[in-house]
Amino acid sequence: xxxxxxxxxxxxxxxxxxxxxxxxxxxxxxxxxxxxxxxxxxxxxxxxxxxxxxxxxxxxxxxxxxxxxxxxxxxxxxxxxxxxxxxxxxxxxxxxxxxxxxxxxxxxxxxxxxxxxxxxxxxxxxxxxxxxxxxxxxxxxxxxxxxxxxxxxxxxxxxxxxxxxxxxxxxxxxxxxxxxxxxxxxxxxxxxxxxxxxxxxxxxxxxxxxxxxxxxxxxxxxxxxxxxxxxxxxxxxxxxxxxxxxxxxxxxxxxxxxxxxxxxxxxxxxxxxxxxxxxxxxxxxxxxxxxxxxxxxxxxxxxxxxxxxxxxxxxxxxxxxxxxxxxxxxxxxxxxxxxxxxxxxxxxxxxxxxxxxxxxxxxxxxxxxxxxxxxxxxxxxxxxxxxxxxxxxxxxxxxxxxxxxxxxxxxxxxxxxxxxxxxxxxxxxxxxxxxxxxxxxxxxxxxxxxxxxxxxxxxxxxxxxxxxxxxxxxxxxxxxxxxxxxxxxxxxxxxxxxxxxxxxxxxxxxxxxxxxxxxxxxxxxxxxxxxxxxxxxxxxxxxxxxxxxxxxxxxxxxxxxxxxxxxxxx
Length: 570
What we know:
Blueprint: E1 17-18, E2 23-25, H1 41-46, E3 54-58, E4 64-66, H2 67-83, E5 91-95, H3 101-111, E6 115-119, H4 125-135, E7 139-142, E8 156-159, H5 167-170, E9 174-178, H6 179-184, E10 202-208, E11 216-221, H7 222-235, E12 241-244, H8 251-259, E13 267-270, H9 276-286, E14 290-293, H10 295-303, H11 305-311, E15 319-322, H12 329-338, E16 343-349, E17 357-359, H13 363-366, E18 373-375, E19 380-384, E20 398-403, E21 411-414, E22 422-425, H14 431-437, E23 444-452, E24 457-463, E25 468-470, E26 473-475, H15 477-485, E27 490-500, E28 504-513, H16 521-529, E29 540-543, H17 557-568
Parallel strand pairs: 3-13, 5-6, 5-7, 6-10, 7-8, 8-9, 12-13, 14-15, 15-16, 28-29
Antiparallel strand pairs: 1-2, 2-19, 3-4, 10-11, 16-17, 17-18, 18-24, 19-20, 20-23, 21-22, 23-24, 25-26, 27-28
Helix pairs in contact: 2-3, 3-8, 10-12
Protein name: 4-coumarate--CoA ligase
Family: Belongs to the ATP-dependent AMP-binding enzyme family.
Organism: Hibiscus sabdariffa (roselle)
């Protein structure tokens, strides 16, 4: 924990850098964590003092849930889950669009010491099946629209809506109840067979593409989530109302809106999916002061600013929080010309850091356009030369390493899944990737090329990891390449990002045809589109005789990216 005030180290108060150990310490005020080690995140949150009344509002219907109703619903759903046999260590999957029920489910599951895992409802049956095989859930919360994707699974299902499911589908799945029926149940004073839950027990299992591009399940503890809550309560001036435009299955939505904002008493208006008109209407109707956006949406606001300001009253809006992809200085300036009273607060975080990293808090900090802000409270950082492993100094570029109470832990524990198999708290079922990402001293290697300046601001220069950011969604090239190579007419393939003003980046594929085969560009794209979510689809294909690789077989993506930029301009 980065407690500068109590440290005997010689730390530069301006930059936060300590030359004796080449470590940067957060300049934010450190926060305490609960001394009671037998404590779950839900109990911790429910006792948090604040002055908020309405917890969540569903933008489409206007349905609201107060804080009192929220905690009663959590008690009822926890009781029902216990009656269904859910126990500490069991994994429960929620795969659904945003709704006011999403936080209720997450908090209820974690209250029992079970582990909540999330999935994108846009995922294909293949992608869902792959995640289920890895995480081994014992129960699924989902919507009627997603149920057909679960045909073939024997897992019990709880519906989050009351829409019709055809008899053909219901005959092939096991729907046991609905969330509404659960909430109506009277909670018991003592949940049956509730095991004692400790801060270091696993609480959530969110999937991240990590630093190598392969999808990995990140196990975060109750303590990690408590650190996130404490950061929210100590860092931020509570917003009166905030629009949740980001998916709750992602660490940003999950950490900030399903959990973090409950500590501040903020009224959270939830969009089931992003819709520009619905978002603008919600800002006006609920007098929202803050909205999280990704760069492509910011660009859309700039392009249509004059028309938007004529149609909507956005005078309440004070802050836009922007993350998920790089934001150019030019776009910031263009936005501020159109909306001069709105601050843009950039940030940086990872699933592996439980939503921690760097952030901006004040209007003065927001003016440092090229930066993603200062280190989050209680975080330590190093800038490490990727080639030598040596720690670097102020204004020197290298890989960002982070350490602190929010970092996923890497140690052995007993995960009570079916069969009681041992697992690693870190990346689920992937001890090798965990060891490669977190060293023995607890430093997490982010895979991002960064530097920290004289004033303690963090700058992200480039990604060492091979991820494509399409509208803020992470697209792992390795997954698409594996699918491409599985095609009988393709012998090799590589996928790279192509910059685009509208979407951030889109995937482009280089494909080597097998001898005698003549698969076309459209056939390649159709092959992929049938197997992946829409945001992962390949938008452009180029056929080459070979994929450039180094002597160890690693794809030379930068060489392909230069070629891809030239092709995209044609």
